[in-house]
Amino acid sequence: MNKGELVHAVAEKASVTKKQADAVITAAIDAIMEAVAEGDKVTLVGFGSFEARERKEREGRNPKTNEKMVIPATKVPAFSAGKMFKEKVAP
């Protein structure tokens, strides 16, 4: 499912126009991204949580030259599915 299909599904379930559903979905996604970028954890009970996680510096290899290289530490976004979500996917 892409964003357009999600907008259509939300519009039907919420009995709103596609334009309204798109505005709400876009605003929700933006708010989640901004909060996680600022270091906050966003928890949607039953669905899951979004957070930034630290990835340690590690050693890697350049696949072309097989030369060792250091991959620097960084922050990455992460999602953990909630209990209801997990149960829905794997009953």
Based on the model shown, name its key terms.
91 residues; two-stranded antiparallel ribbon; HU Protein, Chain A; three-stranded antiparallel sheet
In short:
This protein is an alpha+beta fold and 91 residues long. Helices cover 43% and strands 30% of the residues. Strand 1 (42-44) and strand 2 form a beta hairpin.
Write the layout of secondary structure elements.
Blueprint: H1 3-14, H2 18-37, E1 42-44, E2 48-55, E3 58-61, E4 68-71, E5 74-81, H3 83-89
Antiparallel strand pairs: 1-2, 2-5, 3-4
Helix pairs in contact: 1-2
Please provide a written account of the structure.
- The chain has 91 residues and is α+β, with helices and mostly antiparallel strands.
- It has a single domain, classed as IHF-like DNA-binding proteins (HU Protein, Chain A, Irregular).
- 43% of the residues lie in helices and 30% in strands.
- It has three helices and five strands.
- The strands form two sheets. A three-stranded antiparallel beta sheet has the order 1-2-5. It has a two-stranded antiparallel ribbon with strand order 3-4.
- Helix 1 (3-14) crosses helix 2.
- It is elongated, with a radius of gyration of 19 Å.
- The mean pLDDT is 95.
Q: Which percent range describes the beta-strand content?
A: 25-35%
Give me the oligomer status.
single chain
Which fold name fills CATH's third level, the topology? HU Protein, Chain A
- Rg is 19 Å
Question: Mean of residue pLDDT?
Answer: 95
The topology string of helices and strands comes to: HHEEEEEH
Can you identify the CATH superfamily?
A: IHF-like DNA-binding proteins
Q: Note the overall shape.
A: elongated
What is the class in the CATH system? Answer: Few Secondary Structures
Helix content: 40-55%
Pick out the low-confidence regions. none
Domain module tally: 1
